[in-house]
Design a protein that fits this description.
Oligomer: single chain
Number of strands: 0
Helix content: over 70%
CATH superfamily: Hydantoin permease
Order of helices and strands: HHHHHHHHHHHHHHHHHHHH
CATH topology: Hydantoin permease
Number of domains: 1
Strand content: under 5%
Structural class: mainly alpha
Bound molecules: phenylalanine
CATH class: Mainly Alpha
Number of helices: 20
């Protein structure tokens, strides 16, 4: 039996969408999207974001799924196989292994923080503490030595534990269980948030359309955010694409993922921002939003209704853990499939190897908030370097390479074949000329623009 025949597949269309949406929906939706909407023109930004997703990110997403499904192998070997061992593309494949290696290491540190905050919420810590203490509690925690290291390792072990279960029994089952739960939780938090007194400012912050904010920079930000949010340029979509069966409709699953990701980002905005404004604080982006602003809100509200507030805090941190875990799992699978198929390791051994390697790198990232905070390269701590290098440089380079590979190194016939599942889907056949044009000409130019905007503006 060839290696391909032994490869697993996702069990159904829903499973594909849930797994891919699990990868896409992550901290980017919760801590960056709402803030960017508010700062860059409210409803106007949401429209630009949706257009950028449709015209640029979705074609790149489709290109990555095509690479994965056509090769039915891991992200490194996919490029080698489809290019018939072309020396340049064989090397490119390694980039799609290095990126997840770095991201898993620092992302699971943040995952660990959410585990700690979940424990805090269960212990009613927020309702008991003074709102103003939120910042110092966070600062004290991340700069300590042992606690964040332990929670990081716990989070990483749990995520890789799911990966160790396999594509069907691990990843698919976990996504089917947790993604619907995630939507229910975020809706519950949203209902709580928009019924708080004083929530109006938050709703206005998100919805007020400010057309004067629509500068070229806004477009570049919207595209960059949409790329990160759809997990592009990380090998994750190539790898999940390789588990999609040959008769599945690629357009449908890709669009389904993009829509769920956008929907979740908007819901997260309405769950978080009205509460932040009701508590009378300035919104922030990044970890500050989740670990300082939101606990402040729970603590302030908790003075009046402690049980409800504590319950919402628990919901909130469960949602964060699940969102971060499903994203981390998708990158874990990139690495596991590579180790299994390239070096013949078993799934469990591959997970162990990744745990040791990323666990150790993550420990250094975690310590860079405390004992190692003085160790800096180009003015950045280890954690910041990993994040900056991945989000602003490597991810865009990888997405560009994937889209150029599909548009210029695969033939139009090959991509058409894959996109229509060998002529199975008539609608896909009709829209193919547009998709092909977007992949070949629009997406590469757009990625180069985002890249330079990040450096120049
Ligand atoms: N799409 C994820 C997000 O929005 C990005 C990501 C994917 C991060 C995979 C880590 C791992 O957060």
């Amino acid at each position: 039996m060839s290696a391909d025949n032994k490869r697993e597949h996702f069990g159904s269309r829903l499973a594909v969408i849930l797994a891919m949406a699990g990868s896409a929906i992550g901290l980017g939706n919760i801590w960056r999207f709402p803030y960017m909407v508010g700062e860059h023109g409210g409803a106007a930004f949401i429209i630009v974001y949706a257009v950028a997703t449709l015209l640029i990110s979705l074609p790149v997403f489709i290109a990555e799924v095509v690479i994965g499904r056509r090769s039915h192998t891991n992200a490194r070997d996919a490029f080698a196989r489809l290019s018939h061992q072309h020396p340049f593309w064989r090397r490119v494949g390694y980039l799609s292994i290095v990126i997840p290696l770095l991201i898993v290491s620092y992302y699971s540190v943040i995952g660990g923080w959410s585990v700690e905050y979940f424990f805090k919420a269960c212990g009613f810590s927020f309702t008991k503490m003074a709102p103003d203490a939120a910042s110092s509690v966070f600062g004290g925690f991340v700069s300590s030595t042992w606690a964040p290291v332990l929670t990081h390792l716990l989070f990483l072990a749990a995520s890789l534990g799911v990966v160790a279960g396999g594509v069907r029994a691990g990843i698919e089952k976990f996504s089917k269980l947790t993604l619907p739960l995630l939507f229910v939780l975020i809706v519950a938090i949203m209902v709580y948030s928009v019924t708080l007194p004083g929530e109006g400012a938050g709703v206005r912050y998100l919805l007020h359309p400010d057309w004067s904010e629509l500068t070229p920079r806004t477009f570049a930000y919207a595209m960059g955010q949409s790329f990160f949010s759809l997990s592009l340029g990380m090998g994750a979509i190539i790898t999940y694409g390789s588990y999609v069966s040959d008769h599945e409709n690629i357009l449908f699953t890709s669009a389904g993922t993009a829509v769920s990701d956008l929907l979740f980002a908007i819901l997260a905005g309405f769950a978080v921002m009205p509460a932040v404004f009701a508590a009378g604080i300035e919104p922030s982006a990044g970890p500050g939003l989740i670990f300082q602003s939101v606990p402040f809100v729970f603590s302030k509200m908790g003075a009046d209704v402690p049980v409800l507030s504590a319950l919402m805090a628990i919901f909130f941190f469960v949602a964060i853990i699940v969102a971060a875990m499903t994203s981390c799992i998708s990158l874990g699978e990139v690495l596991v499939s590579f180790l299994m198929e390239r070096f013949g390791l078993t799934r469990v051994r591959s997970c162990l190897a990744i745990f040791l390697f990323c666990g150790a790198l993550g420990v250094l990232c975690s310590l860079s908030f405390g004992p190692l905070s003085g160790v800096k390269v180009a003015g950045m701590t280890l954690f910041d370097i990993f994040d900056w290098l991945c989000s602003n440089v490597l991810l865009l380079v990888m997405a560009l390479l994937a889209v150029v590979f599909t548009g210029f190194f695969l033939s139009r016939r090959e991509v058409h074949d894959e996109f229509t599942s060998r002529g199975r889907y008539a609608f896909n056949d009709r829209v193919f000329p547009l998709v092909w044009f977007l992949i070949k000409w629009v997406a590469p130019v757009a990625v180069v623009i985002i890249f330079f905007t990040n450096f120049i503006l």
